[in-house]
Design a protein that fits this description.
Number of helices: 8
Largest sheet: 5 strands, antiparallel
Number of strands: 9
Structural class: alpha+beta
Order of helices and strands: EEEHEEHHHEEEEHHHH
CATH superfamily of the largest domain: Transferase(Phosphotransferase) domain 1
CATH architecture of the largest domain: Orthogonal Bundle
Strand order of the largest sheet: 1-2-3-5-4
Radius of gyration: 20 Å
Shape: globular
Number of domains: 2
Length: about 300
């Protein structure tokens, strides 16, 4: 249903045993952090669960893959991601605790250890009809969680940071109502006009396909619209067999040659008409037709579903 840039199931030995992705012993080589297991193995980086021996807690460290160590681009990506994310202090944005250079001379940064399921996992289980998930994740709970995502994105955008890779795989949902937006590696910084153009097909706004186009808060609003569509329908508005097909579909949409149906037609739950309208507004291929900010979108959802705010 959704597409992810990277990630794999946890692996490794029993807690307390240092483990590296290639089995060659400790990976970070920083005495303070005792390695436990590999949590995720991405295209250019690993995320490793470690014990912080100073504070006696488990944390996660993101560092470059060994075969990517020598790449200045990968090292700069990690440095930039750590600095940019570390500057975003918000309860719904993953906190950064430390950053530095490891024993191999590679960049790393330390963040909160995240064991929560992703929104992608939850939506997949809802689509499969798993009873426990159906009982735990009502449409009201999902929209409440989604509002937290909108507020985190609105805050980041107000700081001049555009996430550019918002998707269910980058939203973590805790059992006590915690919601965290993670993976800011592709973020565009409006303050100095820097960033890595890219994203995940199916969630990228049409302007992200044009290297000359200007990116702003409405770029993230589009991705939020895709996620809201999936919450309401359990289907992607831009579903196709390959990334190239998704991009072609998105270009047709931007040209006015095609459009997804309202999400309420794809699921048996009753979707308020106002929520559908908010979703389709956020998905407008023309940035001028979308909500100006994620906060404006959130206020519309509050008014339509919870009835304690006025529609924008």
């Amino acid at each position: 249903m959704t597409r992810s840039r990277a990630g794999s199931p946890p692996q490794g030995d029993e807690p307390g045993d240092p483990v590296s992705p290639d089995g060659a012993g400790p990976w970070i080589g920083v005495p303070r952090y005792r390695e436990v297991r590999v949590i995720a193995d991405g295209g250019t980086s690993h995320i490793i669960e470690c014990e912080d021996t100073e504070l006696g807690r488990r944390i996660a460290i993101k560092t470059a893959r060994r075969d990517a160590d020598a790449s200045p681009r990968v090292q700069e990506m990690l440095r930039r991601e750590a600095r940019l994310t570390g500057q975003l202090e918000h309860p719904n944005i993953v906190p950064i605790y430390d950053a530095g250079v490891d024993a191999r001379g590679g960049r790393y940064y330390v963040m909160r250890l995240l064991s929560q399921p992703t929104l992608e996992t939850v939506l997949g289980k809802l689509a499969a009809g798993e009873p426990d998930i159906l009982a735990d994740y009502s449409i009201g709970r999902l929209l409440t969680d989604f509002l937290q995502v909108c507020r985190a994105v609105d805050y980041a955008n107000s700081c001049g940071v555009i996430h550019c890779d918002l998707k269910p795989a980058n939203i973590l949902l805790g059992r006590y109502g915690e919601v965290l937006v993670v993976d800011w590696g592709l973020a565009f910084d409006q303050r100095d006009q820097t960033g890595l153009r890219g994203g995940t097909p199916g969630y990228m706004a049409p302007e992200q396909l044009d290297p000359r186009a200007r990116l702003d808060a409405r770029t993230d609003v589009f991705a939020l619209g895709v996620m809201l569509y999936e919450i309401l329908s359990l289907h992607s508005p831009f579903d196709a067999d390959s990334d190239a097909d998704v991009q072609a579909l998105l270009r047709d949409y931007a040209a006015g040659e095609w459009g997804p149906p309202p999400p309420g037609r794809l699921r048996t739950i009753a979707v308020p008409r106002e929520i559908e309208e908010i979703c389709m507004c956020a998905l407008d291929p023309d940035p001028a037709g979308r909500f100006a900010t994620a906060g404006e979108m959130a206020r519309g959802i509050e008014a339509a579903f919870f009835g304690h705010a006025r529609l924008p």
